């Protein structure tokens, strides 16, 4: 069953109705060719979901009848915030899609010393629109309970300051020798920081070429833990996904009970 997100204000629980607007209307009616009576999975973007049947289809709105509420929690109690050093634009789309599938809560884009992206304001607005659509489509495909947020673009120092809002922070670094990611995630310090109903862990990922040595030192001075991810060097688009998967396996819901 295909899944779509509906704004909370378009859900009328009392009358068991909801409304789909925007680009999804055309996709449902013209591309997927759904018709009246067909059923859809609908999520409000806040981890509440419903099975609905199509009651009416017009050019700009699809009216749905709520059939039942689904009691499935699809989100981890560990909220992973990825601070992604800006890669080349063609890699960003892959990163956003795979991070959404992996289960991240938020993606923060960061301009680091080795970032080589042209930050043209006019073009960035269009890029953000496309990136947000990619995250939205990935969230539908993998049946997320929320649509991860994209924030930025932050400077390196702004990112360091922003990480103070998290309960714990790690930063994979290829030159790190003393501490592995699994060891730090299993440590008492990390487990105690994550021992709450909704805990946030930040993961700072470098761009192509990684962090400069001075940047890594700043990250460590901020209180984040510099960690190794093994003997091999990962590309930035691989490192962010692997770090997320390891973190949610050790602390969250990847791997099941």
UniProtKB/TrEMBL annotation:
Ribosomal RNA small subunit methyltransferase E PUA-like domain: residues covered: 20-67
Cellular location(s): Cytoplasm
GO term, biological process aspect, one: methylation
Substrates-to-products reaction catalysed: uridine(1498) in 16S rRNA + S-adenosyl-L-methionine = N(3)-methyluridine(1498) in 16S rRNA + S-adenosyl-L-homocysteine + H(+)
Signal peptide: none
This protein's UniProt keywords: Cytoplasm, Methyltransferase, rRNA processing, S-adenosyl-L-methionine, Transferase
GO MF annotations, alphabetized: methyltransferase activity
InterPro entries attached to this UniProt entry: Alpha/beta_knot_MTases, PUA-like_sf, RsmE, RsmE_MTase_dom, RsmE_PUA-like, tRNA_m1G_MTases_N
Domain of life: Bacteria
Pfam families the UniProt entry points to: Methyltrans_RNA (PF04452), PUA_4 (PF20260)
Main location per the UniProt record: cytoplasm
Family (UniProt): Belongs to the RNA methyltransferase RsmE family.
PANTHER family reported for this sequence: 16S RRNA (URACIL(1498)-N(3))-METHYLTRANSFERASE, RIBOSOMAL RNA SMALL SUBUNIT METHYLTRANSFERASE E
UniProt protein name: Ribosomal RNA small subunit methyltransferase E
Organism: Peptostreptococcus equinus
């Amino acid at each position: 069953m295909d899944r779509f997100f509906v704004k909370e204000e378009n859900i009328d629980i009392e009358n068991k109705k909801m409304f789909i607007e925007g680009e999804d209307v055309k996709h449902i009616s013209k591309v997927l060719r759904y018709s009246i009576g067909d059923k859809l999975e609908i999520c409000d973007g806040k981890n509440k979901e419903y099975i609905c049947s199509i009651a009416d289809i017009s050019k700009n709105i699809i009216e749905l009848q709520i059939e039942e509420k689904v009691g499935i929690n699809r989100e981890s109690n560990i909220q992973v915030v990825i601070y992604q050093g800006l890669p080349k634009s063609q890699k960003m789309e892959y990163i956003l899609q795979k991070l959404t599938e992996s289960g991240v809560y938020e993606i923060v884009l960061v301009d680091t010393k080795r970032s080589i992206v042209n930050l043209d304001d006019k073009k960035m607005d269009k890029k953000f629109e496309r990136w947000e659509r990619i995250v939205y489509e990935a969230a539908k495909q993998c049946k997320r309970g929320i649509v991860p947020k994209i924030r930025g673009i932050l400077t390196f120092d702004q990112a360091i300051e922003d990480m103070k809002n998290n309960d714990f922070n790690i930063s994979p670094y290829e030159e790190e020798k003393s501490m592995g990611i699994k060891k730090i995630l299993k440590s008492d310090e990390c487990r105690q920081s994550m021992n709450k109903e909704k805990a946030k862990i930040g993961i700072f990922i470098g761009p192509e070429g990684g962090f400069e040595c001075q940047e890594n030192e700043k990250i460590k001075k901020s209180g984040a833990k510099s960690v190794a991810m093994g003997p091999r060097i990962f590309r930035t688009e691989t490192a962010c996904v692997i770090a997320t998967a390891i973190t949610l396996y050790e602390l969250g819901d990847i791997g099941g009970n």
